């Protein structure tokens, strides 16, 4: 590791992440043998099934016991284990640049909150390190209304360095098109793998669902981390505010006191809908509030992904 | 004129209503908040927009209600400070109207917002309920197109309530007069009560005066109950005129019982001036002048009677007309002697003015009563047009030959009385009728000889003496002449004679001159008839000069062949007045010989007749209490044809009769006027007692000095017509005088109070109310009212509590400190700009 201090990844993180492993529930198509299930039947340790012998099969894979008992020719097949090809998709749109929630520091002093993008970048860096550390291949795609940064899947310290530095160079200031980008990714990632989407998902839920289903149709394992800020959830303003949309610049003058309760319900309904759709599509969904420590968030993610 | 619809609600201090502008403070703060709202960059406005569309409508209405409540609180505080007063009805009705107004405005405003939002929503929703491509961000049915019917209906209801409340508060139409209470504790009031004769009209079961007294009693005792009060009478009579406002209501009411219609009415302007002076000195904020009258006759004829009110502009003027209807009656307005001397035997022509007050033309009959007995052949009929027209007045003329000496009461009586105006059916005149006048004819012969001046004069003074036949009833004649030679006169007493005619006497002795002087000064009438026998030097030396028995020194004689006819006589003189319509009969007098005065002008006296050559024929001058008539020619001696003209006899008779009443020593006065009683004494400590007719109580009168230093006893209590007797305290002196009513109120054609009110000073508050109850209702509408301040303050408190409850209900959900943003108003929106603290990031990654 170079001595360069990454903005979104610190050595302390490495120490914490070294003990963690991300396991995917489904099968993934890796390049090397690894710790994840492969769709291919191979000849490994773990027995999978029998298959009738066809000419051309190697005789050494015949199950001699079955031949002796039944006088039939069966080939013995075993599960193939492979490494993981993960793609971390980080939303780098302008809406991710919001950070109102405060976070107490080690001295208990209230600090200005991190933005959702910063929080997402920390999560992305952490996940990349963790995956790389377990010999999986990890790539990074940052997007807003188009793909802003694409780092192909790879492994090794230099690859991680590329990811960490790439994250630092991102500047979230454009409009977002989550569904379009996810559709693009679904076509772009050729092999089955793990796709981790880190976004606030502030888009049309139908379109998002459609895009996620597209990814699922491509047999990817999907993890959806919806990064949210308490401030945007609570709408904790006590006086009339002129809100300016961070993406399209439109403005709306409103007294938050008048709509706070309904706003919360509306946002919660949106989150519930996303969560429901994810459940229906067998997508791992995690709500990531920026005031929650990143490691706790990673652990929550690992708990979710390993639950089934 | 204040009979316009009066505002049912007004304010004691309307300037404070400017505080209503404070109602704009919540709006200003609201707008200011909106203008100064900080800009916060937010991830997405999607949820805000959706929420705002879905829910802020309701919240907006709630906030709008809060805003209205705050505005109402401010406005009503200002209203309470301005001292709201409600008039004409129950304050509860006013509160109801106030609440209706607030509710109406609130409903109207809220429904307008809802309607506006509904329109926006319909516009945004487009033609279908669920537009394609719309973002469905929450489960549940999509909001439908909001209906506009109910908002419109409620807007109309709110508008109707608002308009009704404004109408109710702004006018007295919706306020019943039940429960009105006029608080007169701050009122000083002067009531001018008309107790003139016209108020004696029987209007309904009572006379107008009785009704007016009842109204006054009601005003003072029950309805108005002023703190300070005074009652002025148009006919005060002997009652004292109040010089200050009193507070003893009971005593004031008790005095009302004694009010009668006596004497003459004072001019209304004078009464209003008195009332104004009384009110001017009052410190009471509410000052009121109430005139209770029928506004008929003289009382209402002075259009400038309200002029004194200009001095005290704050006085409220109240006119209370007491005319219920127009009595169908004829009344005698005036009754008096047209001409004739009040001497036995003289024929007096009486003249009466009668007025019809009824609505239809009538032809009433009138008769003359003398001392209560109907005089024969004295009935007259008069045709009168409807009341109020020019023909409603007519003159009744009656002649009567006076028969009995002494005080005679001549009464004109309406024979077809309807008794609506008892006093107007008959009107009396008391005359002191002198017994026969004794006249002394002085000639230059021992006996009366024919064709002499004395003969003609004697014949003129006793025209029937030569035709009286034995056994026949003597013709009643008022003059009894006596002939004497001028030489016999100095030795005789002249006190029994009323007039002395010196007929062409050659010379006058100084003794005779002195005697004649005393006679004239004592009140006698002396008539010189200067003929050709007169010695001018003797006359000038004895009669002219200091004795002033002649108007100047005579010169002449002047004679001409053709003579000179009379050119002019003073028909206004009592000896010529009413004799002929023109001067022509007098111009038949032709004078051939005459005496003249220097410059054809008398030194003293006035000319009663001139000839064509501008020379004088008759001169009259006063001397002491008597008069001197000087004919500068004479009927005898061929100097003039005056004895043969028709004017001679009446001239002589009138000179002889003179003013019969004055000669009788009795003067007639009018009611209400001070009667000077002359007592022949210099004892200023002597008091006299005056007894009014039909009264047994004598009024003591003290002496006073006239400006010229003479002693006089002035009796001011002559209110009733009749003969008043007076007697000195020591019984040494006595006498009598007569009080006659020359004219009376008979024209009941009232001037409308509305017309009178227009004569009031500009900007003068004028009320017209027939009854005390009506007046108080009118007063309650304008001058004072029930204060709404306590109620409005209570309403303010209620509104403030509601506002607090609503504000608490809608206040923001409590947020944790770390989530509170913009509490200080400082723009902290940098937090959303991506420039987060690196320390936070560091903390995150620790």
Q: What does the radius of gyration of chain B come to?
A: 47 Å
Q: Main sheet of chain A, how many strands, which sense, barrel?
A: 6 strands, mixed
Proportion in helices of chain B: 25-40%
Fraction in beta strands of chain B = 15-25%
Proportion of residues in β-strands of chain A: 25-35%
Helix/strand order of chain A: HEHEEEEHEEHHEHEHEEHEH
Largest interface: A-B, 75 and 57 residues
Largest sheet of chain B: 9 strands, mixed
Number of strands of chain A: 12
Number of helices of chain B: 16
Assembly category: heterodimer
Structural class of chain B: alpha/beta
Q: What is the C-alpha radius of gyration of chain A, as a whole number of Å?
A: 23 Å
**Global geometry of chain B:** elongated
Poorly predicted regions of chain A are 102-106
Q: How many helices of chain A in DSSP terms? A: 9
Please report the distance between the alpha carbons of the first and last residues of chain A. 35 Å
Q: Helices and strands of chain A: which structural class?
A: alpha/beta
Mean pLDDT value of chain B: 78
The N- to C-terminal Cα distance of chain B equals 92 Å
What do you see in this structure?
- The complex is a heterodimer of chains A (308) and B (846).
- Chain A is of the alpha/beta class and 308 residues long.
- Helices cover 36% and strands 26% of the residues of chain A.
- Chain A is built from nine helices and twelve strands.
- In chain A, helix 5 packs parallel to helix 6 and helix 6 (205-217) packs parallel to helix 8.
- The model of chain A is unreliable at 102-106 (pLDDT under 50).
- Chain B is an alpha/beta fold and 846 residues long.
- Helix content of chain B is 27%, strand content 24%.
- Chain B contains 16 helices and 36 strands.
- In chain B, the strands form eight sheets. A nine-stranded mixed sheet of chain B has the order 19-18-20-21-26-25-24-22-23, sandwiched between helices.
- In chain B, strand 18 (437-443), helix 8 (453-461) and strand 19 form a beta-alpha-beta unit.
- The longest helix of chain B has 36 residues, at 46-81.
- Chains A and B meet through strand 4, strand 5, helix 3, helix 7 and strand 10 of A and strand 2, helix 2 and helix 16 of B.
- Strand 10 of chain A pairs parallel with strand 2 (39-42) of chain B.
């Amino acid at each position: 590791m170079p001595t360069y201090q990454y903005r979104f990844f610190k050595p302390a993180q490495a120490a914490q992440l070294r003990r963690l492993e991300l396991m995917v529930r489904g099968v993934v198509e890796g390049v090397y043998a690894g710790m994840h299930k492969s769709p291919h039947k191979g000849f490994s340790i773990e027995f999978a099934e029998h298959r009738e012998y066809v000419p051309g099969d190697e005789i050494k894979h015949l199950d001699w016991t079955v031949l002796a008992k039944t006088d039939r020719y069966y080939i013995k097949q075993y599960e193939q284990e492979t490494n993981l090809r993960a793609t971390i998709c980080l939303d780098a749109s302008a809406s991710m640049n919001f950070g109102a929630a405060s976070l107490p520091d080690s001295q208990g002093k209230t600090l200005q909150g991190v933005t959702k993008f910063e929080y997402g970048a920390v999560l992305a860096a952490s996940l990349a390190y963790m995956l790389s550390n377990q010999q999986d291949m990890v790539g990074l795609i940052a997007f807003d209304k188009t793909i802003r940064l694409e780092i192909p899947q790879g492994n090794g310290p230099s690859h991680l360095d590329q990811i960490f530095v790439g994250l630092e160079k991102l500047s979230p200031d454009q409009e977002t098109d989550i569904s379009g980008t996810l559709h693009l990714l679904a076509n772009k990632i050729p092999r089955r793998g793990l796709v981790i989407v880190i976004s606030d998902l502030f888009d049309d839920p139908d379109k998002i669902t459609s895009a996620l289903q597209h990814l699922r149709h491509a047999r990817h394992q999907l993890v959806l981390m919806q990064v949210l800020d308490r401030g945007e959830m609570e709408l904790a303003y006590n006086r009339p505010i002129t809100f300016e949309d961070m993406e399209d610049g439109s403005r709306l003058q409103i007294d938050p006191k008048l709509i706070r309760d309904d706003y919360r319900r509306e946002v919660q309904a949106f989150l519930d809908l996303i969560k429901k759709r994810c459940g229906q599509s067998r997508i791992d969904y995690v709500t990531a509030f920026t005031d929650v420590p990143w490691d706790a968030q990673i652990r929550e993610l690992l708990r979710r992904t390993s639950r089934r | 004129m204040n009979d316009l619809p009066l505002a049912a609600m007004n304010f004691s201090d309307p300037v404070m209503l400017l505080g209503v502008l404070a109602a704009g403070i919540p709006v200003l703060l609201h707008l200011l908040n909106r203008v100064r709202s900080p800009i916060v960059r937010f991830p997405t406005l999607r949820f805000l927009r959706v929420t705002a569309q879905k829910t802020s409508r309701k919240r907006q209405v709630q906030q709008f209600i809060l805003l209205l409540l705050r505005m109402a609180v401010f406005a009503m505080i200002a209203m309470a400070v301005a001292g709201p007063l409600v008039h004409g009805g129950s304050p509860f009705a006013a509160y109801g109207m106030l609440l209706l107004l607030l509710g109406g405005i609130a409903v109207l405003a809220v429904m307008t917002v809802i309607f506006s939002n509904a329109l926006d929503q319909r516009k945004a929703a487009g033609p279908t309920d669920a537009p394609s491509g719309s973002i469905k961000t929450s489960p549940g049915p999509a909001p439908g197109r909001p209906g506009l019917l109910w908002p419109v209906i409620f807007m109309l209801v709110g508008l109707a309530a608002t308009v009704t409340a404004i109408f109710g508060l702004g006018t007295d139409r919706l306020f019943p007069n039940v429960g009105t209470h006029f608080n007169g504790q701050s009122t000083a009031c002067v009531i001018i009560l008309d107790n003139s004769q016209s108020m004696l009209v029987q209007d309904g079961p009572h006379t107008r005066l009785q009704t007016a007294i009842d109204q006054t009693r009601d005003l003072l005792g029950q309805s108005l109950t002023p703190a300070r009060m005074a009652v002025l009478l148009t006919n005060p009579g002997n009652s004292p005129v109040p010089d200050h406002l009193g507070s003893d209501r009971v005593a004031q009411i008790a005095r009302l019982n004694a009010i009668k219609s006596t004497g003459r009415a004072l001019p209304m302007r004078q009464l209003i001036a008195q009332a104004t002076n009384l009110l001017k000195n009052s410190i009471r904020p509410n000052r009121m002048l109430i005139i209770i009258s029928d506004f008929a006759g003289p009382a209402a004829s002075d259009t400038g009677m309200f002029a004194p009110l200009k001095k005290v502009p704050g006085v409220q003027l109240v006119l209370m007309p007491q005319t219920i209807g127009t009595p169908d009656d004829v009344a005698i307005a005036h009754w008096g002697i047209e001409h004739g001397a009040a001497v036995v035997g003289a024929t007096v022509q009486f003249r009466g003015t009668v007025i019809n007050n009824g609505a239809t033309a009538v032809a009433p009959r009138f008769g003359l009563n003398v001392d209560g007995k109907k005089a024969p052949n004295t009935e007259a009929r008069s045709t009168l047009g409807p009341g109020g027209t020019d023909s409603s007045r007519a003159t009744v003329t009656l002649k009567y030959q006076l028969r009995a000496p002494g005080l005679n009461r001549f009464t004109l009586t309406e024979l077809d009385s309807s008794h609506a105006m008892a006093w107007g059916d008959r009107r009396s005149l008391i005359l002191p009728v002198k017994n026969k006048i004794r006249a002394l004819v002085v000639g230059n012969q021992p006996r009366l000889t024919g064709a002499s001046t004395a003969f003609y004069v004697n014949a003129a003074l006793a025209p029937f003496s030569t035709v009286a036949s034995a056994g026949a009833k003597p013709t009643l004649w008022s003059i009894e002449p006596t002939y004497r030679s001028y030489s016999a006169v100095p030795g005789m007493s002249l006190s029994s004679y009323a007039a002395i005619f010196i007929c062409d006497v050659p010379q006058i002795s100084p003794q005779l001159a002195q005697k004649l002087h005393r006679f004239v000064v004592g009140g006698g009438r002396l008539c010189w008839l200067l003929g050709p026998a007169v010695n001018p030097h003797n006359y000038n030396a004895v009669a002219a000069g200091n004795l002033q028995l002649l108007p100047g020194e005579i010169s002449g004689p002047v004679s001409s062949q053709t003579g000179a006819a009379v050119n002019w006589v003073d028909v206004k003189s009592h000896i010529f007045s009413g004799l002929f319509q023109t001067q022509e009969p007098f111009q038949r007098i032709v004078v051939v010989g005459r005496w003249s005065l220097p410059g054809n002008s008398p030194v003293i006296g006035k000319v009663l007749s001139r000839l064509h050559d501008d020379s004088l024929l008759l001169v009259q001058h006063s001397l002491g209490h008597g008069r001197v008539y000087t004919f500068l020619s004479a009927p005898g001696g061929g100097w003039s044809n005056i004895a043969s003209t028709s004017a001679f006899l009446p001239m002589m008779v009138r000179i002889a009769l003179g003013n019969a009443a004055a000669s009788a020593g009795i003067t007639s006065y009018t009611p209400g006027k001070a009667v000077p009683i002359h007592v022949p004494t210099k004892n200023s400590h002597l008091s006299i007692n005056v007894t009014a007719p039909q009264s047994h109580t004598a009024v003591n009168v003290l002496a006073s000095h006239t400006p010229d230093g003479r002693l006089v006893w002035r009796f001011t209590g002559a209110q009733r017509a009749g003969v008043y007797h007076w007697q000195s305290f020591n019984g040494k002196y006595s006498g009598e005088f007569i009080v006659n009513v020359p004219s009376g109120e008979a024209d009941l054609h009232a001037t409308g109070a509305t017309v009178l009110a227009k004569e009031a000073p500009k900007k003068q508050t004028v009320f017209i109310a027939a009854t005390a109850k009506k007046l108080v209702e009118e007063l309650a509408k304008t001058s004072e009212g029930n204060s709404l301040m306590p109620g409005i303050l209570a309403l303010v408190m209620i509104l403030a509590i509601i506002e607090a409850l609503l504000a608490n209900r809608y206040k923001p959900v409590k947020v944790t400190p770390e989530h509170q943003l913009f509490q200080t108003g400082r723009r902290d929106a940098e937090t959303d700009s991506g420039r987060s603290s690196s320390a936070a990031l560091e903390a995150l990654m620790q």
